Each structure stands twice: as C-alpha cells, then as structure tokens.
Amino acid sequence: MKPLSIKTKITVWYTGLIVLILCIILGILAFSTDRILVFELQRELEDEVYDIVEDIQYVNGTFDFHKLKYFDDGISISIYNREQVLIKGLLPSGFSSSVPLHNNQIQTIQSGEVHWLVYDLYVSTNWPEALWIRGIVSLNASYETRTYILLICVILFPFLALLAAFGGWLITQKAFQPVSLIRKTAADIENSGDLSKRIQLSGSKDEIDDLAQTFDHMLDQLELSFQKERQFTSDASHELRTPLSVILAHTEYGLTQRDNPAETADALQVIQQQAKKMMALVSSLLLLARTDHQSAQLDFETVNLSEIANMVIDELMITAQSKNITIHTAIDDNLIIVADQTSIMRLLLILQNAIRYGRQNGWIKVELHQLKEDVLGSIEDNGIGIASDDLPQIWNRFYQVDPSRKSVEDTSAGLGLSIVKWIIESHGGQISVESLPGQGTLFRFSLPNRSRHYTNKTLKRT
C-alpha cells in the first residue's frame, strides 16, 4: 500500500478535526436546544400567569373577569376556585381536565402525541376568596423548532465539512508547492548533472522560502566546489605533466649519451630539479587537499616569532646574494605567539617570492612589530610588481602572473600564496597585498598574539 503524502495527511487531519468540531457543536445543540427553548417558554408561561393575577379584580363581593384574555401567544389560561373546580377560562383541545394542580410548579404533561407545559399558581392573599390560576402551553411547537434547527445543522454540516476539506487541500497544495519545486529542481540536477539550476523562490518570505534560499545557497557552494575541484584537477595534471615530460625527455637523452659523462650528468641534474619540483608540488597538493577536507592538523604551541623569522632570513640570504638583493629587517625582539611552528616557517617563505621576482641589485624589507594583541608583519620589495588585474587572482591555486618567466630551475607551481592565505586565516589573522608593476610589491599580515590566553605548552587545533 502506497504511503499517504504529507499533503494528504494534513488534509485528512484538518478535515477530521473540523468534522469532530462540527459533531461536538451538533451534540451541544441537540442537548441544549430543548433546555433553552423550554426555559424560555417556561418564563413566558409564568409571566402570563402573573399578568392574569394582576388583571383579576374583586368588586362588590364578586370577581370581575371581563378584562382577561384566556388565550394569548399560544398560552391557554384557566381559573379554578379553592376546590379546584374550573370556573373561567378554557382548556386546550386534547388536554385532560383531570390533571391535578400543584402550586408554583412547572409540570410537563403528555396527552397523546402532544406534550404540554403547565404552570399552576394558588393565590389566597389578594382577595377574600382563593383562586387557582393555570397556564397551559404546547411544547410541540418548541420541539418542531428544535427539530428544524437540528435538521438544518445535519444538512449544512456535511457541506461545511466538504468545504473545510477542500479549503484545507487548497491551503496545503499552495503551501507545499515550493516543496514540489525544490523536489523538481533536485530531480533535474540529478538527471542532468547541471549544478547551475536554482529554485529561485521568492515572495512568500516564510519557512519554506528560507528553506529554498538555503537550498540555493547550498547549490552555489556545491557548484563552486565542483568548479574548484575540476580546475584543481586540471591544473594539477598540467603542472605534473610538465616536469614528467622534462624528466622523460632528459632520461631518453641521457641514455643516448652513455659515452658522454658530462651530458649525462647535466641530464641527471635536470631530472633531479624536476623531481624536487614534483615533490614540492605533491606536498603542497596534499596539504591543500587536507585543508579542503578540514583534516589538516595544526599543533599550536608557544613560539618565538622573532627567532623563527631571523632563522628563515638567514637561510634565504644566500639565495638573495646570488641576485645581489639586500634584505633589511626591523623585527621586534621576543615576539611570542601561539601558533603552529611549521606553518609559520612556511608562511615566512613568502620571502622566496620576493627574491624570485626581485630586481637585480634590489632590496627587500621585512618588518615584524607588536601592536596591542596582534603581531603586524610586512614584506616589501622593489621587484617587478603585479598588475592590478592580477592582484585578486594571486590567492587562487596554480595562478601565476606570467608563467613564461619561469625557468627550468623554478620549482614554484602557483600554490604558495594559496597556502600562505590558509595559514594566516587558520591562525585567525589577515593578509593583504599592494603592488605596482615595475615598482614592487608589499604584503601585510597580522597574527593574533594569544600566548597569555594559554597555559599549556602544546595545543591541538580543533
């Protein structure tokens, strides 16, 4: 058996609730209509009897009944003497005259198919002689009214239930229309594989609209992720193909120069350089893959940024001297931060870019200063610079401003700045760049100094 849809369940539940309410209302009407109608009729009957008492006059030792109305508004009035003998008035047709009188009591008498409401009043204080006043009214008219009301309810309630069911179905149909649109969009994406499709629901501004916008936002993220993955795979394949082609070419060349040790050595040196490039590229790719899956672990500990920076600068000094580049430093002493030491060293290797693209006989300035709770750093050079159109792209993976400038010895693959940006952001900092072609480039970054917030020597990033 096919399970009921949510729309059907809501419609059935809503209709059942309405039917239950209507049944309760019908039961209340059936139970209370008699009471209400009889109570009202009883009040009228009593008022009529008391009005008769006020209209009776006792003149010259006898009763004057000339002003009395013995039938008014369906109520029959009859007058009895002390011995309960009828002396004036009339009895309704079909009413038994043998019904005993009971002072100030309401009686319900059935005579044949007719039900009567009877009220008797014994009056002994107004006149020298006591009288019984009886009022009689038929209940059949009230019962007919009750039956008429209930009949109308019985006829109308099914239509009201059907109307409620139809209205509930329309409401749920309209309410779940966006859900159907979401399902259709998901099915279209599944069938076509086109992640550019969107629900684009607007106007309702309700929970379903929020769901649709969240779904669209999720699709934006998925499409962007797939685009990055495709681009990443394509770029990685391209970057790996180049050194592999060089290695294969020099291997084949080296095999043809077995009798020429110098040429063989040159070929092996090129192969070694390309292997190092591939190793660096694979290492960077592995790190970026871990960051994408949020599985990269950073071991936070208290480190001396000043010592690390001076150590990295000393290591790069030989490379800088090969291009006669002077490195100027302005580094505060004992800059203590809580960070991952390996990542911080990789971050400072941004100096390699400054040296690689620096001007012959140029300069590089490295500054690290304490400012309140942050360490502010900058690396500036007077090298070739970066065009303004390229600045927003330099953080993208595999992006290189001018790949044609690369030499065989250059092991860069356009991943360094992407890794640097991730390191800065993983430490809660920020990084920015300014550059003018032909004048140089300035990188500024900040790292929060959180050392006083931690007491443990080593902290795991969560």
Automatic annotation (TrEMBL):
InterPro entries: HAMP_dom, HATPase_C_sf, HATPase_dom, His_kinase_dom, HisK_dim/P_dom, HisK_dim/P_sf, Sig_transdc_His_kin-like_C, TCS_sensor_his_kinase
Domain of life, per lineage: Bacteria
Residues annotated as domain HAMP: 173-227
A Pfam cross-reference name: HisKA
SMART domains, alphabetized: HAMP, HATPase_c, HisKA
Matches recorded under PROSITE patterns: HAMP, HIS_KIN
Entry EC number(s): 2.7.13.3
Record keywords, A-Z: Kinase, Membrane, Phosphoprotein, Transferase, Transmembrane, Transmembrane helix, Two-component regulatory system
Catalytic activity: ATP + protein L-histidine = ADP + protein N-phospho-L-histidine
Gene Ontology molecular function: kinase activity
Membrane spanning residue stretches: 12-33, 148-171
UniProt main location, coarse: membrane
Broadest EC class assigned to this enzyme: transferase
Domain Histidine kinase residue range list: 235-451
Record's subcellular location: Membrane
This protein's name: histidine kinase
Organism name: Pelosinus baikalensis
